[in-house]
């Protein structure tokens, strides 16, 4: 795995032009030269991310069994929770425990949807819950604290109607990545993977600092990459899995049923991503706590998962 999030290079602005007419607000100005520059920078960014994924992936594949063994060596602790929150769009109110939506559109932090090129890796689902109403709300709408120019985070996220339900449950085999010690073993294997030589000249063209593109070597670096606030950039912009999605594939292969992680939108909150299609224990379940309409499947476990995929 490689990280850091690559920021877009600074844009080249056109020379200052005459003031705009009163009452007219121009969002941006650019010239044909700007367009050509942006096209070139965009091509370089695509090339950089392709190198970071496709040239590192063969190294990962050669060490895949080693990576999986390293994760398997971490104690598979159980997590029990009560009064956590599951948040879904209003149209899915009668299917609050379904994982189908996680693979039909944009994937989540720890699962792959249709935003990743399916020729690279097939989609797989996850069910996400959070430790509080606020955490669930901010995670669903990707709305951090604060606002801009009088607009709330919810305004900026174009919030739509949603439903939130209280859940409780028990998941038998979970890895908690908010604890750095749980990432020690896999980082010792990742430290053996080298940066591709083709990356350096692309970085020079883009004027990207070395500190912004590096191979993950430590639990602190890996934890930051897996819980990065801007993790969506890789799958959405480049069609390749993010580091957190790559980690999820390894965790599933290592026998984990879920990942506990720190919320990137609520610093004091925690979330659980449940690999519903990888449940292996009859002790693992998530169920609704409150009264529910007739016909609703109120419990996700080994017996009900086929109906909730």
Structural account:
Helices cover 32% and strands 17% of the residues. The chain has 309 residues and is of the alpha+beta class. The protein has one domain (34-308). Strands 2, 3, 4, 6, 7, 8 and 9 form a seven-stranded mixed sheet that branches. A hairpin with a 7-residue loop joins strand 6 and strand 7 (270-274). It is globular and about 60 Å long. The chain starts with a strand and ends with a helix. The mean pLDDT is 88.
Query: How would you classify the helix and strand content by structural class?
Result: alpha+beta
Average residue pLDDT? 88
Gross morphology is globular
Low-confidence stretches: none
Q: What is the radius of gyration?
A: 21 Å
Distance between the termini: 29 Å
Number of strand elements:
9
Taken in chain order, the helices and strands follow as: EHHHEHEHHEHHEHHHEEEEH
Helical content class: 25-40%
The percentage of residues in β strands lies in: 15-25%
Q: What kind of sheet is the major sheet?
A: 7 strands, mixed
Q: Secondary structure elements and their pairing?
A:
Elements: E1 2-3, H1 32-54, H2 57-62, H3 64-72, E2 77-89, H4 101-104, E3 127-130, H5 133-141, H6 153-156, E4 162-176, H7 184-190, H8 199-206, E5 214-215, H9 219-226, H10 233-238, H11 243-253, E6 258-262, E7 270-274, E8 285-288, E9 299-300, H12 305-308
Parallel strand pairs: 4-6
Antiparallel strand pairs: 1-5, 2-4, 3-7, 4-8, 6-7, 8-9
Helix pairs in contact: 1-8, 3-7
């Amino acid at each position: 795995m490689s990280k850091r999030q690559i920021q877009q290079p600074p844009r080249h602005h056109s020379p200052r032009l005459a003031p705009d007419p009163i009452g007219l607000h121009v969002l941006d100005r650019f010239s044909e030269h700007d367009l050509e520059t942006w096209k070139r920078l965009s091509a370089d960014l695509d090339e950089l991310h392709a190198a970071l994924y496709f040239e590192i992936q063969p190294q990962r594949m050669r060490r895949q069994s080693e990576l999986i063994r390293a994760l398997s060596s971490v104690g598979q602790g159980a997590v029990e929770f009560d009064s956590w929150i599951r948040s879904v769009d209003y149209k899915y109110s009668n299917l609050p425990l379904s994982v189908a939506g996680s693979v039909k559109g944009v994937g989540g932090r720890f699962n792959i949807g249709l935003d990743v090129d399916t020729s690279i890796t097939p989609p797989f689902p996850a069910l996400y819950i959070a430790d509080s109403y606020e955490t669930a709300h901010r995670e669903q709408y990707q709305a951090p604290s604060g606002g801009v120019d009088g607009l709330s985070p919810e305004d900026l996220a174009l919030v739509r109607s949603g439903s939130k339900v209280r859940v409780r449950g028990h998941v038998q085999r979970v890895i908690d990545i908010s604890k750095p010690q749980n990432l020690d073993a896999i980082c010792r294997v990742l430290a053996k993977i080298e940066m591709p030589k083709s990356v350096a000249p692309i970085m020079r063209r883009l004027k990207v600092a070395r500190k912004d593109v590096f191979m993950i070597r430590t639990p602190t670096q890996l934890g930051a990459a897996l819980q990065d606030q801007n993790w969506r950039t890789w799958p959405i912009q480049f069609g390749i899995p993010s580091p957190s999605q790559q980690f999820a594939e390894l965790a599933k292969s290592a026998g984990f049923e879920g990942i506990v992680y720190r919320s990137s939108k609520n610093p004091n909150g925690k979330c659980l991503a449940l690999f519903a299609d990888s449940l292996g224990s009859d002790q693992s379940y998530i169920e609704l706590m409150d009264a529910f309409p007739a016909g609703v499947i109120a419990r996700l476990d080994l017996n009900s998962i086929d109906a909730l995929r």
